[in-house]
Design brief:
The complex is a heterodimer of chains A (about 130) and B (about 150). With about 130 residues, chain A is α+β, with helices and mostly antiparallel strands. Helix content of chain A is about 25%, strand content about 25%. In chain A, the strands form two sheets. In chain A, strands 4-5-6-7 form a four-stranded antiparallel beta sheet. Chain A has a three-stranded antiparallel beta sheet with strand order 2-1-3. In chain A, strand 5 and strand 6 form a beta hairpin. In chain A, helix 2 runs parallel beside helix 4 and helix 3 packs parallel to helix 4. The longest helix of chain A has 14 residues. By secondary structure, chain B is α+β, with helices and mostly antiparallel strands. In chain B, strands 4-5-6-7 form a four-stranded antiparallel beta sheet. Chain B has a three-stranded antiparallel beta sheet with strand order 2-1-3. The chains are: A alpha+beta (about 130), B alpha+beta (about 150). Chains A and B meet through helix 1, strand 2, helix 3 and strand 5 of A and helix 2 and strand 5 of B.
C-alpha cells in the first residue's frame, strides 16, 4: 500500500471530519486535512501535525485516528445505565451501540471503517445532545 | 493524544516482531542516531511526500539498515491483522470491543452472539495494546498464523 494511502486508511474520512468540525469538536489531532483549493472543501490532502504552519491554516480540519475517536466517545451514557460496545458484524461492519440488558436500537451506528463508525457515533451523540463539545 | 498513546507499546511491538507478524506499519520504534550516542529508542514515522514533493510528515525514519526497527501499530492496522471472526468447533465468534466495568480499560474478545458468550479476551488501558495482546493470544494459541 502506498504510504499516503496508508495514512488515509487510518483516519476518519474528509466528509465526517468536516461534520465533526462543524459540530464544534475542537480537539487536536495527529493528522489534519488541508483543503487544496482554499474556499472549497471538495479536495484536501492529509498532513501530520507539525507538517504545516498552523497559524496560516485556520481551515485545517482534524483527521482523527481510531484511538483519538475512541478516547472521545463516552464509555457510558444516561448516568451509568448504558455502556458502550462495538462488534464486528456478519455484514462486515463495525457496529457501535450502547446497551444495558438490550441494545438501544435508536443509537446504533456502523461502517466498514472503524474510524468512520466511531465518528458517526460521536456525531450522533452530539446531535442528540447526549454529549456536549 | 500523544503519538505513543495511539500505537502499541515497545514491549508488545517487540513481541509481535518475535512472533513474525507482518512488519508493515506507519510508525516504528527505532534507535535514534541523533541522540548523541545515547541508547534510546524513538517513535519514527515513514516519510510521506505530497504530489508537490512537500514533506507532509515530520520525524521521519532513519535511513540506517543496521538499526532494528519495531513496528508501532495503530488500532486500524491491528484490526487489519486481527480476524473479524474466528471459528472454533463449528461455532463462529465475532470480534468485540467494550470498555471494562471500571471504564479505565478496553476489553477485546470474541463472542458468538450479540450479547452472550465470550471467547479469548485481552484488556489494556491503551486500545492498541489491548488489540495487540489479542493478536499475540490468537497466535500463541495457534488459532491464527502470523
Amino acid at each position: 500500500m502506498n504510504i499516503e494511502d496508508q495514512v488515509l486508511s487510518q483516519v476518519v474520512s474528509l466528509e465526517l471530519s468536516q461534520e465533526l468540525k462543524l459540530l464544534g469538536v475542537k480537539k487536536e489531532s495527529l493528522f489534519y486535512w488541508l483543503p487544496i483549493d482554499y474556499g472549497s472543501n471538495k479536495k484536501a490532502r492529509i498532513v501530520m501535525k507539525g507538517g504545516f504552519n498552523e497559524t496560516y491554516h485556520d481551515d485545517a480540519i482534524p483527521a482523527f485516528t481510531a484511538s483519538e475517536l475512541l478516547d472521545m466517545l463516552p464509555k457510558e451514557i444516561n448516568g451509568d445505565d448504558y455502556e458502550l460496545g462495538c462488534n464486528f458484524s456478519k455484514k462486515m461492519n463495525y457496529v457501535f451501540y450502547y446497551y444495558e440488558n438490550e441494545i438501544m436500537d435508536e443509537l446504533l451506528e456502523q461502517d466498514e471503517n472503524l474510524c468512520n463508525a466511531t465518528a458517526k457515533m460521536l456525531i450522533h451523540l452530539i446531535k442528540r445532545k447526549i454529549i456536549e463539545v | 493524544m500523544k503519538l505513543d498513546q495511539i500505537v502499541t507499546s515497545l514491549e508488545l511491538s517487540k513481541r509481535l516482531k518475535e512472533l513474525g507478524v507482518k512488519q508493515e506499519s506507519l510508525f516504528y520504534y527505532q534507535n535514534n542516531p541523533y541522540n548523541d550516542g545515547q541508547d534510546c529508542i524513538d517513535l519514527m514515522i515513514r516519510e510521506v511526500r505530497s504530489k508537490n514533493n512537500e514533506n507532509v510528515i515530520m520525524n521521519t525514519e532513519c535511513d540506517n539498515d543496521e538499526n532494528i526497527k519495531y513496528p508501532a501499530y495503530t488500532a486500524s492496522e491491528l484490526l487489519e491483522l486481527l480476524p473479524k471472526k474466528i471459528d472454533i468447533e463449528a461455532i463462529s465468534y465475532y470480534l468485540t470491543i467494550i470498555p471494562t466495568s471500571a471504564l479505565k480499560e478496553w476489553m477485546v474478545f470474541y463472542r458468538n452472539t450479540f450479547l452472550s458468550y465470550k471467547k479469548c479476551s485481552s484488556t489494556d488501558e491503551n486500545i492498541c495494546d489491548a488489540l495487540a495482546k489479542m493478536l499475540i493470544n490468537l497466535i500463541e494459541q495457534g488459532i491464527i498464523k502470523p
